[in-house]
Each structure stands twice: as structure tokens, then as C-alpha cells.
Amino acid sequence: MKMPERTWTYAAGLSRRLGEDTPEWFDAFVAHVAARYSPSEACRHLGELGRLLASADDLTSLVANATHDNGKLTPLGWALEEFLSARGLVAAGGDAAARSRQRRGRLIARAPESLRSVLQRFADAELTNQRRAKRVGARPRSDQTLHIHLEVIVDFACANAGLGDWASVAAGDVEAFLAERSPLGSHLLPSLRTFFVWARSSRLVLVDPTRDLRSSVRRHFSGSVIDLSCQRRLFRRWTTDTSASPNEALIGLLALVHGVSVDELRQLALSDIDHALNAVALRGRAHLVPLDPSTWSALERVLCHRETLGTSNPHVLVNRRTKVTSQPVAQGYASDLLRPLGVSPQQLRCCRIAQLATTTDPMLVTELFGMSYHGVEYYLADQVDEARLTNL
Hints:
Blueprint: H1 5-18, H2 26-34, H3 39-53, H4 59-65, H5 75-86, H6 96-110, H7 116-136, H8 143-159, H9 171-179, H10 188-201, H11 228-240, H12 246-258, H13 262-267, E1 273-274, E2 279-280, E3 289-290, H14 293-309, H15 333-338, H16 345-359, H17 362-369, H18 373-380, H19 386-390
Antiparallel strand pairs: 1-2, 2-3
Helix pairs in contact: 1-2, 1-3, 4-5, 6-7, 6-8, 7-8, 8-10, 11-12, 12-14, 12-16, 17-18
């Protein structure tokens, strides 16, 4: 027997113990956790809250204290941030910064010990530039881009195990590193150049070894596409097979039929749905995206599934972890759902874009997907002659 009144009984006792230190929002927060957690979980969170209130000076530090040793938010931390940010009392940030910091730490730890301090300075400088770009309204580099830069530099350091100082790197070392890598790694040289430009400006090297190097790699679509029989099999599964979860069916159809990206899937909110037009508004696209009957039915199944969860999360896609928060699902959630089928959402999206780019007007693709001309050229490189590419 769950005894839902147990949460309120425990909260009343906690309030008496706190006395004058009981915050004015305490009762509202009790209702918040009681609606989202089982009585035992809610009491556990309230007990942790009582301990944190004794040492927190303000609400921001209260949320900051509700973290694990690695910096990730505890379940109480997620509940507090959602509750307080909805009332404008704290800024919602989640634990993305802590997760990125952990990933950078793991990457730097792979490098030879003598080179780690410089890599840490480089990572800190990139983060500073990212924050500065956000502050002035420019377009900052994403966390993923910063991780790619750092990973390439770490791989370069590991490949040159005898490297004692970055100042001793020559152009030949860079060329040898690039020659051993896949010819499709068009991001390698730009990442190395970013590092050595920073190193020279920081007076860590006298000469940039990448200055006179030019990439011979021509970027073009080299990913795998899904054959028609596989597309039909997946479409039948997501429209007729009841064993497929609602979230899986919606993710698959949006990616396969409408070329929706993982980020667009994660950020799709209830407020983006136009029920009158059977369409959705996707971030980065200038126009509403009308949904075909099959995809619209999958969306309706997801909305019905959400009602059974009793969640207040504003995003369309929710799972067990995010149903009690206002955060979108994790970056890898969509991939994890489709992995047992042998496909990924990125693969489905690329398949759709490649098909449209090679069978319709490329200008139409740029308008539909909010892509640049260079993005469309990436898919056309293996399909049309050079004259057509230069005329884009």
C-alpha cells in the first residue's frame, strides 16, 4: 500500500523541525514532489532537502549542493531546479556543464602527462571563447565541437608518444598523423590548426606547423543509406506493429519521412504542435512541417502515452528519467531506441536528405531543411558533375 498521505505527514514533521528556517515555497515544493514521485522517494528527497537547507546560503547554492561528487545533479537537484526555475527563482542550467567537464577530463587523461597542462589550458581557452560568444550574441561553438577539437589533439599527442614539448612539433609530424588517419577525416586538420593557432598566440610555439598545410580531402557524403526494402520494413513496423513503443515509432517516422535531426527531436515541445493543421514547428526551419497521416497518428500515440505518465515536462518526448523534470531527453536516447533495429536517426535523416537532394531541386532542400548551400553540396558531391557543383 503506497499511502500517499505519508509524504505530507513527513513534510509536516520536517517543517516543525526546521521551524523559522522553513522556506515560504516549502509547501508548494512538497506538492511538486508528491505529484511526481512515490511516497518513499518523495520522503527521501524531502529528507535530503532538510539537510541541505541547513548549509545553503541562497537558492543557487542550494541547487548546487544537490549534486553528486562528480558534479551531476541528484534527483532532488533536478526537482529543485525545475521547481525553482519555473518560478523564476533560479536559472535553469541542468548538469550539462558537469558532464562536459567530465568528458574533457577523460580526454585529457589519455594524453602523455607532460602535455596535459597545455591541453587543459587550451580547453579552458575554448570555453572562455564560447562564453564570450554567448554573451555578445554571436554564434558560439557547440560543446560537441570543442570535444572534437580536444579529442583530435589528444590523438595527435598519443600518436607522437616521444613528444616532449609542443614547440618541437613540425609540419612533417602533422602530415604523418593525417596520413595514418581515414581519408574521410576532414575535421582533423581544422582541429589541429585551431590548437596551434592558439598555441602560437599564447607563445607556446614559435611557428604554426599547420600554417602551410592544405587538406586534400573533399568533403562529400560517404555515409550508408537504407535500401527501399529496409525502409518499407521499418515503415510497416512503425505504423502497424504494436510491439514498437510510441516514442520509437515517432522518432523513426519523423527521421525517415521528414528528415528530422536528433536535436530537433529532443527540442520538439507541446507548444510546437499545430493541431488544426496537423503540423509541427521545428527549430531551425522557417516553415511549419505538415505531417503525413502515419506520422501524425504516431504523434497522437505519444501524446496519449504522455498522459499515462502524468508528466509536466513541456517536451513531446519524455522517458522515465525526464518525466519528473523539464529537461529534454538525452542526446543518445533516440539512437538507443533504434539501435536494436540496426539503424540510427542520423542514418534515417541522411537517407531522406540524400534522396531529395539528388532527385529534386537542391534549392528546395535548403529551404525545407534550413540547410546551407554547402550542406546540400555535401550530398551532391558523388551524384553530379563539377560544373553543377560550381553553379550552386
